[in-house]
Amino acid sequence: QKEVEQDPGPLSVPEGAIVSLNCTYSNSAFQYFMWYRQYSRKGPELLMYTYSSGNKEDGRFTAQVDKSSKYISLFIRDSQPSDSATYLCAMVTYGQNFVFGPGTRLSVLP
Amino acid sequence: NAGVMQNPRHLVRRRGQEARLRCSPMKGHSHVYWYRQLPEEGLKFMVYLQKENIIDESGMPKERFSAEFPKEGPSILRIQQVVRGDSAAYFCASSPGSSREWADTQYFGPGTRLTVL
Hints:
The complex is a heterodimer of chains A (110) and B (117).
Chain A: E1 4-6, E2 11-14, E3 19-25, E4 32-38, E5 45-51, E6 54-58, E7 61-66, E8 71-76, E9 85-92, E10 99-100, E11 104-109
Parallel strand pairs in A: 2-11
Antiparallel strand pairs in A: 1-3, 3-8, 4-5, 4-9, 6-7, 7-8, 9-10, 9-11
Chain B: E1 5-7, E2 10-13, E3 19-24, E4 31-37, E5 43-50, E6 53-56, E7 65-68, E8 75-79, E9 88-95, H1 99-102, E10 107-108, E11 112-116
Parallel strand pairs in B: 2-11
Antiparallel strand pairs in B: 1-3, 3-8, 4-5, 4-9, 5-6, 7-8, 9-10, 9-11
């Protein structure tokens, strides 16, 4: 079992839809959880950063962490064609290196 | 405020040649991380450096790969005698503090795409 699993997609949605992106993980020691967005042939860009369980909202984006289920989510409301990218989850605990999921490719159709 | 800089953006090498990838961290950042990304795969950690120190190279292949972050100048990832399997995107990230000790977020450069012919 991989340390972090993520559905690779591609996920295609119409403009304006609510998008749900998810990661599961196996290491219960992870404490910090991040979502990165990566446009084609670009570097990953940090979107959201959360500590432990709970929700965090930033504009159209909401990050959710459920440590009991080892499951994290990123919701995108009112999705736009400019949201089309690959979304990578990442997680870390003290003394360890970041571990990234393989990414989910999202396509928002106009 | 310039972000993380990487050069070259694209690098083509023939098998057996050397590849040198450069990374200048964000201003004020003294921690540098190198990752490799293969198509349809996530970012794989390679090495973590601070100025003049290699902190963790557990993700680096044992042979042909080396990294440094000198007191002055950019961090360098060096691949000797490249093979076709080295073709990938190599990303550098930097953080103000140690991501391992403080979970500081990492900021990524645009990457260097290495193609080995």
